[in-house]
Amino acid sequence: LQQLKDELGEVVAEMEAMEGGGLAADETKPSNKAKQTSIGRKKFNMDPKKGIEYLIEHNLLAPTPEDVAQFLYKGEGLNKTAIGDYLGERHDFNERVLRAFVELHDFTDLILVQALRQFLWSFRLPGEAQKIDRMMECFAQRYCQLNPNIFTNTDTCYVLSFAIIMLNTSLHNPSVKDKPSVEQFISMNRGINNGGDLPRELLVVSAFSCPPFLPLTIPLLCHS
């Protein structure tokens, strides 16, 4: 709460400084643009919707899903939780931004866990199951688009992605005493490939590659 108050105070102070400046417009334009961008980022971190609206109103962002997605993907000065909240909103524009955001990721030739790590590093998953569901559906579609010969359909990729996230949570949550084994993970994912089984090698490489297996950055799922 104190951090939010401090950030709000900084935003107000910067806006007052901009309004009270005595320099000519052409001299202050670059400085004002930088200040407005900074204000927009801080507004976004406090309220993602208002932050994007502010940046669009001040011509710092084009009102297109592609431009907003690029802004979120770069993430300069942005809170990753706020990015996740914005991407997870169920509004037509937000959903188009989500699709454009996912398309900025290149998962070509990455094993699934590597692609998941890259994707989940760019934002934080929100707390609502429906929002997570939409995000993971977009991820699975993008992964299969770039790696068309791994899974028979996107549903298989989607289910296995969730299984990897839950496995990762169990492996790195200290409150979970009985860690899943390779055989248990394989058994839990039988029949997910259109009723058939995925190759054992694919499951092992997807979930237990590159030991020691590094934790995915998913604060929401890492709490007991």
Automatic annotation (TrEMBL):
One of the record's GO molecular function terms: guanyl-nucleotide exchange factor activity
Family matches, as Pfam families: Sec7
PANTHER family the UniProt entry points to: GUANYL-NUCLEOTIDE EXCHANGE FACTOR, MIP16918P
GO biological process: regulation of ARF protein signal transduction
Source lineage: Eukaryota, Metazoa, Ecdysozoa, Arthropoda, Hexapoda
Organism annotation: Habropoda laboriosa
Domain (SEC7): residue spans on this chain: 26-203
Domain of life of the source: Eukaryota
InterPro entries: Sec7_C_sf, Sec7_dom, Sec7_dom_sf
Name of the protein described by the UniProt record: Cytohesin-1
